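Q: Sequence in, structure out?
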Amino acid sequence: MTLDGFIKLLHKEVDYDKYKSCANITPGACDCPSCCSEQYFNGNNPTYDCDQKRKIYVLRYLPVHIYENYQGALIIPEMMKKTLFSKDIVKVLSLGGGPGSDIAGLKRFIDTLSNEEYQSSKFKIVRLDKEDGWSDVS
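A: Exactly. Output:
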């Protein structure tokens, strides 16, 4: 599935009225989108244990974060790129990886550079996040 197709699917899955019966709505929030954003303010404890919050986060941030990670990788100095691609196995650890935007950006970068000059190394990627629910959208 393409990223665009995935985003369209998520738009259909989000229940924007779920906050009306939610026992865990973020204090100060008046709907699901504000529940996602308000959790970072006024001493609230950010958590993504709600499937609606995870979906809204992905809709808001995943495409731009993939692009930002990809653009960041593109400015890696040439010598470092050659060193990276000369290794048999490159191990990558994504801490707090959430939906995997950093991994998707890295994959796009790898796909862009994989040619004769940059023979692909094998990449072993581990994503760690305290919220297991991200596996549904990563």
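The beta strands are 89-95, 122-128.
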